[in-house]
């Protein structure tokens, strides 16, 4: 006989989070679903640095100084650490409203706006918030069912509202927001220094070789041999990658340095939030470059509000074959029972105890149902019953 048994199945919260994100290592790593360009970033950095350490560094360490590969290794490790920290962390995703919270917010909005006549457009869902004596508008997100905090925006790629949203960067495979912006800035800064460093010492390597055997002979370098030809091709490829990377990465670093100095985000700069026609002053700027840089790069890092590795317990039913369980006070009745035994067993199951013997005897007639007989006095002859005479006839 099959019995349904309920077991508790442990489910992590990251498995039920909405949005278009991917999670690894039991929710510890959080990224966007579009990660193809991120893999290209890893390939370019690892490939260029591997060529530099394999060929140029050995020659430069002997000819110039052994500190050259050491400093290059420090820049490489720092750039990789900040890249992975930016790509694998929560950028500051704001949880969506629960059904009860969303219904309450909708009731508040309806009560505030009132009934809108048919055919008219409802007013925008906006709340005014004051920051540094300046009114800032909080916009309503129809996807997350919340009023977004100041400087937050909804990322259309990850489908999440991100606090202090800067932009979605496909090169790191994640959004850039309040919780990972400093690591993103340190990544592009260290990558710019690493690119300049490798590009410079590639030129130094070619110059040192040219002083000894000439520039054309350096490019050829024992023509006809396979290793030297491969080395020449790889060196040229390395120089080209660094040259074209310099313009984009160094330019991006300069742009974000400008934003950090003003305590402004890329999203605000593109929309012209503080430089539009109204010329509204940025309420988040301290008016001092040092203070703005300290707040953006050295301020306290807020914890994640997602609780990705929190536990949600769900019950799942599993069927098992076995005898039907019985309670401690129940007994299995014998195979064959008479009417009286069946009555006894039912009384035992109801009362939980064995009834007294009088309770299981044949039912006796009550005083009203018994025939009335005249009692004899001593010495008086018995009175015959009228039924007896009828029986004799």
Verbal overview:
The protein has 393 residues and is α+β, with helices and mostly antiparallel strands. Among the domains are: 13-94 and 168-298; 99-148, no CATH class. Helices cover 45% and strands 15% of the residues. It has 10 helices and 12 strands. It has helices spanning 36-63, 67-87, 99-113, 181-213, 215-220, 226-262, 266-271, 289-298, 339-351, 386-392, and strands at residues 2-12, 21-24, 29-32, 93-94, 126-131, 134-141, 146-147, 153-155, 160-162, 167-169, 174-176, 311-321. A hairpin with a 4-residue loop joins β2 and β3 (29-32). α2 runs antiparallel to α4. The two termini are 69 Å apart.
Précis, in short:
With 393 residues, this protein is an alpha+beta fold. 45% of the residues lie in helices and 15% in strands.
Q: Class by helix and strand content?
A: alpha+beta
**Termini, distance in Å?**
69 Å
Number of strands: 12
Counting DSSP H or I runs of 4 or more residues, the number of helices is: 10
Look at the structure and give the mean pLDDT: 76
> Can you give the helix content as a percent range?
40-55%
Percent of residues in β-strands:
15-25%
User: From N to C, what is the helix and strand string?
Assistant: EEEHHEHEEEEEEEHHHHHEHH
Calculate Rg over CA atoms.
Answer: 44 Å
List the helices and strands and how they pair.
Layout lengths: L1 E11 L8 E4 L4 E4 L3 H28 L3 H21 L5 E2 L4 H15 L12 E6 L2 E8 L4 E2 L5 E3 L4 E3 L4 E3 L4 E3 L4 H33 L1 H6 L5 H37 L3 H6 L17 H10 L12 E11 L17 H13 L34 H7 L1
Antiparallel strand pairs: 1-12, 2-3, 4-9, 5-6, 6-7, 8-9, 10-11
GO molecular function, one term: protein-cysteine S-palmitoyltransferase activity
Protein name: Palmitoyltransferase
Subcellular location: Endoplasmic reticulum membrane; Golgi apparatus membrane
């Amino acid at each position: 006989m099959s019995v349904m048994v309920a077991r508790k199945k442990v489910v992590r919260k990251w498995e039920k989070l909405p949005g278009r994100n991917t999670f690894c290592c039991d929710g510890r790593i959080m990224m966007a679903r579009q990660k193809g360009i991120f893999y290209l970033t890893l390939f370019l950095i690892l490939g260029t640095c591997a060529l530099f350490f394999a060929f140029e560094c050995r020659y430069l360490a002997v000819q110039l100084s052994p500190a050259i590969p050491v400093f290059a290794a420090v820049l490489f490790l720092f750039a990789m650490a900040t890249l992975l920290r930016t790509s694998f962390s929560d950028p500051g995703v704001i949880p969506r409203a629960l059904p009860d919270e969303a219904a309450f917010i909708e009731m508040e909005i309806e009560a505030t706006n009132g009934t809108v006549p048919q055919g008219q457009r409802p007013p925008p869902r906006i709340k005014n918030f004051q920051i540094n004596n300046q009114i800032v508008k909080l916009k309503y997100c129809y996807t997350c069912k919340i009023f977004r905090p100041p400087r937050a925006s909804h990322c259309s790629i990850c489908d999440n509202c991100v606090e202090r949203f800067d932009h979605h960067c496909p090169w790191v495979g994640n959004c850039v927001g309040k919780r990972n912006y400093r690591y993103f800035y340190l990544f592009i800064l260290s990558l710019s220094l690493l690119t300049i460093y490798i590009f410079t010492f590639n030129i130094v390597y070619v110059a040192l070789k040219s002083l000894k055997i000439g520039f054309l002979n350096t490019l050829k370098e024992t023509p006809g041999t396979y290793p030297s030809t491969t080395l020449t091709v790889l060196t040229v490829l390395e120089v080209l990658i660094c040259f074209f990377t310099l313009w984009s990465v160094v330019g991006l670093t300069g742009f974000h340095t400008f934003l950090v100095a003003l305590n402004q985000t890329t999203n605000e700069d593109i929309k012209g939030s503080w430089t539009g026609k109204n010329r509204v002053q940025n309420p988040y700027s301290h008016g001092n470059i040092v203070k703005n840089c300290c707040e953006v790069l050295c301020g306290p890092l807020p914890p994640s509000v997602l609780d990705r590795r929190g536990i949600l317990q769900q019950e799942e039913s599993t069927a098992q074959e076995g005898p039907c369980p019985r309670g401690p006070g129940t007994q299995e009745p014998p195979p064959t029972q008479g009417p009286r035994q069946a009555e006894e067993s039912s009384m035992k199951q109801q009362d939980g105890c064995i009834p007294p013997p009088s309770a299981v005897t044949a039912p006796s007639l009550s005083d009203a149902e018994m025939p009335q007989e005249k009692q004899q006095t001593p010495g008086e002859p018995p009175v015959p019953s009228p039924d007896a005479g009828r029986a004799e006839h």
